[in-house]
Amino acid sequence: MITATHLTKRYGDVAAVSDVTFSARPGRVTGFLGPNGAGKSTVMRMLTGLTPPTSGETSVLGHRYRDLPNPGRHVGVMLDASAQHPGRTGREVLGLAARTTGVGSAAVGTALSRVGLTDAEAGRRVRGYSLGMRQRLGLATALLGDPQVLVLDEPANGLDPQGIHWMRGLLRDFADAGGTVLLSSHLLHEVQVIADDLVIIGRGRIVAEGTTEELLQRQGTRVASLDDDELTIALRAAGIEVTQTPTGLLAAAEAATVGRVALDARIVLTDLAAGSAGGLEDLFLSLTADHSRGDAA
Fold first, then answer.
1. What is the pLDDT of residue 276?
2. Which of 8, 57, 50, 2 is nearest to 24 (CA)?
3. CATH number of the domain at 220-274, please?
4. pLDDT over 90 at 60, yes or no
5. What is the location of CATH 3.30.56 in the chain?
6. What is the separation of C-alpha 75 from the centre of its chain, rounded to a whole number of angstroms?
7. What is the reported pTM?
């Protein structure tokens, strides 16, 4: 369990984070999203004891991170995969982390195998690693102590499609086994696929929080059928606002309600899903439009 309560961080007159409150629960993957400069990294650094908050509190597993005995055995952290000694081999990086956290040397081989780094790759110096390999090594370090919580900033950065698919499965399995995952990423499609819950931040403040399904449902329901004209008539007769889109219809009601109307009208559906065709990307852009740097670009 991760909690942030009225978390604020100020640098002089500038508020990087303002009154942020949210939680990430066991058994679930929580996606932590926001534009560049929104305060995501600052929040994650405060959660893991690297940056002291100006006010407010954070807790991991019911304790402040700095009060956890041997925190690496409870919380796996990867905030910057490039922050690894370039002159050491991957195995040496993990070996040092193993000694620091007090796990046996056997844990190094287990971690390497878990993230798909071969013995030959583990024997290479980190300066010769690709970005994707550094990501895998950083995740291996986070998993080394068999933690209950993972705090990951852009863990899929630099991974190819196969690697992203692998990471999705690893994090899903971790959460399904009862672990807590807090995940920051700009790969919105991947977050939509894996995240159970979303926390969206803009200019240091929470702009939306809830389950992925609940937040996507705010956009309405995407629906298509064998007869969209008849479906439009039926939905409007039921008092549901309908908008035509290039891919079908967007109805201002829950998917179950839309499906029930279609069933009563005996209309065959070919698509029925929460949110617009753009999914999480459309939701993210609509919620952060006033908080991004897009206009400047």
1. 62
2. 2
3. 3.30.56
4. yes
5. 220-274
6. 16
7. 0.83
